[in-house]
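JOB MANIFEST
job_type = single_chain_structure
chain_count = 1
residues = 220
[input]
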Amino acid sequence: MADLLEFAKQVKDQLTRVTREPHWESGEAERYMVEINARRERLAQITNRLMTTTIQPRLEILAEYFSNATRTRNEPSGCCSYWFGYCERFPTSTKVSYTVEHDVRFEKVIVRYDAVMMPVFIKLVEHDNLTFALDEVQDDLVATWVETKLLDFLDAYLRIDRGADFADEATTDPVCGMRISRSTAKVSDSYRGHPYFFCSGECQEAFAREPKAYVEVKTM
């Protein structure tokens, strides 16, 4: 207890010696918050416009051609995504999403693209973003960028349907049994001169700890 009392005294003494200079001038904090709120409202308007007139309609056009595509429900404001479910034609689950975000000062608008595919059969651009100053957002440039990303995704997705593009590279993760491509596998390892490919670092670590438990699984 004595040590705590001494420490408390040292803290108090140090605070007493320091003269605190005000960070804000009179009324400056209030003016700053008014400005931030105005930017926030402006961002909300831009987000709603981009989502309803630019991003969502283009995602819907793409999704109309796939019976396995469904809109993700209960999404947060500023996000639109579709799931392309696992099926015989496309034996993978894929999510494509766009999100409109901002920086900490609400001075920039960031349109983000994300694509996730499991299992990963092909090389796929998983993340990209487009950034504008708050008052310099150009809807036509956003539309062109969104279309380019969706067409690139479509080209990659259809390669799964063609099959031959990756059939020679297909293999099985010996730990979890997931079908993956050698060229896009997250990690690889070898045992007794034989290569093995894995969907994740966790599977590779499990294999490395006890390879004999998995080598009987046919992976080639």
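[summary]
The first helix runs from residue 2 to 17.
Residues 11 and 136 are 49 Å apart (CA to CA).
exit_status = 0
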